[in-house]
TrEMBL record:
Residues at the site labelled Stabilizes the basic form of H active site to accept a proton: D98
Active site: H23
Superkingdom: Bacteria
GO biological process terms held by the UniProt record: protein quality control for misfolded or incompletely synthesized proteins; rescue of stalled ribosome
Protein's name in the database: Peptidyl-tRNA hydrolase
Quaternary structure annotation from Swiss-Prot or TrEMBL: Monomer.
Length: 195
């Protein structure tokens, strides 16, 4: 495990119209992490211009917490800018994102792998030139019936889901902290059996 700092990025779309969407759960988790760390996210300049970010400590580690200000499918540019600005390798990148292939309220951790059709991950992999970054996958479940996944992720969480959304966001934030504190394998051993 690196000494960091780690770049922890929560994915979502900008603006109030998207704030409650399933696709924005990564940004929700990032907001929770920023609150826990007492980090204020503010617009950057230069290479950091397309994100809201702040620096602090989380789980005993130095971190840069960030939410791209771009749309989801353009997340890679802001992430690359932040990695370059802070002189960080992509292996010290943690991306928190929504995951269709996990049931709602399940959190999983991994490094690398495919993007599963997730445009934010695809953009980041393309911009960084690697898929070998850490991921906190926050389950949102599959769309019901024949609903298009692209429409599903841009809808707000259902009334039933909203009752436990706060708990899911907290669990994903806990998992992120464990990942930073203990490393991937130890964090997986704690997080995965519980979900």
């Amino acid at each position: 495990m690196s000494d960091g700092p780690f770049l922890v990025v929560g994915l979502g779309n900008p603006g109030p119209g998207y704030a409650g969407n399933r696709h924005n759960v990564g940004a929700m988790v990032l907001a929770e992490l920023a609150a826990r760390a007492g980090v204020r996210l503010s617009p950057g300049k230069g290479p950091r211009a397309r994100s809201q970010s702040g620096e602090g400590r989380l789980a005993g580690r130095r971190v840069v917490l960030a939410v791209p200000s771009s749309y989801m499918n353009e997340s890679g540019g802001p992430v690359r800018g932040l990695l370059d600005y802070h002189h960080l390798p992509a292996t010290d990148l943690v991306v928190v994102h929504d995951e269709l292939d996990l049931d709602f309220d399940v959190v999983r951790l991994k490094r690398g792998g495919g993007e599963g059709g997730h445009n934010g991950l695809r953009s980041i992999s393309r911009s960084t030139g690697t898929r070998d970054y850490l991921r906190v996958r926050v389950g949102i479940g599959r769309p019901p019936g024949r609903q298009d996944p692209a429409d599903y992720v841009l809808k707000d969480f259902s009334a039933t889901e909203r009752k436990t959304l706060e708990l899911l966001v907290a669990e994903a934030a806990d998992a992120t902290e464990l990942l930073l504190e203990r490393g991937l394998e130890a964090a997986q051993n704690t997080v995965h059996p519980r979900s």
